[in-house]
Amino acid sequence: MNQLPPAGVRGALHEQFARIGKAVASAKRIELLELLCQGERTVESLATATGMGVTNTSQHLQVLKTARLVETRRAGTRIHYRAADERVCGLMSELGAVARARLVEVERLVRNYLEAPEDLEPITRKELLGRLSRRDVVVIDVRPMDEYKATHIRGAVSIPLAELKRRLRDLPKNALIVAYCRGPYCVLAPQALALLRARGFRARRLEDGLPEWRAAGLPIASGS
Amino acid sequence: MNQLPPAGVRGALHEQFARIGKAVASAKRIELLELLCQGERTVESLATATGMGVTNTSQHLQVLKTARLVETRRAGTRIHYRAADERVCGLMSELGAVARARLVEVERLVRNYLEAPEDLEPITRKELLGRLSRRDVVVIDVRPMDEYKATHIRGAVSIPLAELKRRLRDLPKNALIVAYCRGPYCVLAPQALALLRARGFRARRLEDGLPEWRAAGLPIASGS
DNA sequence: TCGGTCTTCCAGAAAACACTGGAGGACAGC
DNA sequence: GCTGTCCTCCAGTGTTTTCTGGAAGACCGA
Question: Is this model's pTM higher than 0.85 or not?
Fold first, then answer.
């Protein structure tokens, strides 16, 4: 190649490269490829392994197939998928390496799970009060909006559990997040924690819930 | 790592990997990354090099930046972008390698341009007639739809130039495609050829155009 | 402080994509 | 032939991405 191809071809070439990129632009497909790099599997086994529906799995596999990253083999009524060649798996690990090197979030995810087990304990009212006055915490009220409007911990923001996923981007990645809800048996806060931690946030639960905070005579507020 | 992280984290990890994948899921961004792997450049210089608008270029660069694939440096009023590290460029070449290895289209693109110069000559009416009867050709009429309805070569399908891009998927990748329009000085067919060839199709032009075909007493039709 | 330049942010339209459920195709066993 | 299994295709819905102009922000030089 002693000369560049003309512009029209260059664009189309890049589009071909992008086909590969698009194929690995989805977490589900990456999961599938990782599994396939371990060995051949049927559609159904991939579906159960990833927790996706069979239809959806099949469609993702079609995408990978048209990008020529995987190949198929029919055996009776079922179809076995496998990675098209070792280079594909090489690309996957390269991708993972870049992700680990470049994305701090990945490190944080691992650290959050493997270390800091004390973060799994609820935070006491007293400690939260201290942190609130030092402003080194974000307190979120994960109950439905109308309950928040009625009464909430002073300084807390309302993020109903249903909206949490959508509002993740509003939350700080480095500060501690404390979630609370109706009381010690309420499931909203634990669910919020699970989501937050899976996304790499540092999150803890307040001991008990709002009624106990209020009963302790600690500062509350109402309205939005 | 002697144990897998729990499912919630695994999913989130894959999503982090997919962030990198998404970043390279667009031909434009791949082009930008390739340029940046050669060295630092300003937004404007990237915009002119790729033929994109500055706004659009900037937005693609933001995507790359949030994926941590590129970094910036301010110098007075302009901002210099560069690849975040060599591993990123390594990933790009790995991507290109897989694309070349796996995508036949890429090979075809190169071949279409570097070889088969005879395909650049128009096809004669006589040859087209023969191929039409052997059905080993797809003839497309790239004039506006109403002209097609009035009269067209029998066996041709109507794909007005404006719609060609959208309808590329309807065309065969292996068969020969012959385009015609109003006559030897009409620009529609040449433009269609440029697009088709850039996308890897085998495409030729009919000598002259419809009037000459008709004048030669060859088979025509009308209606849709 | 005031233009001028370079870049980013924002809002809206068009296109592409992911997921779902139901219909259809290929195969094995009876 | 018929039935059941496994997979793929199709159509519809809701979300995300891409691109475009216009406005705003950061910086330089006068």
Answer: no
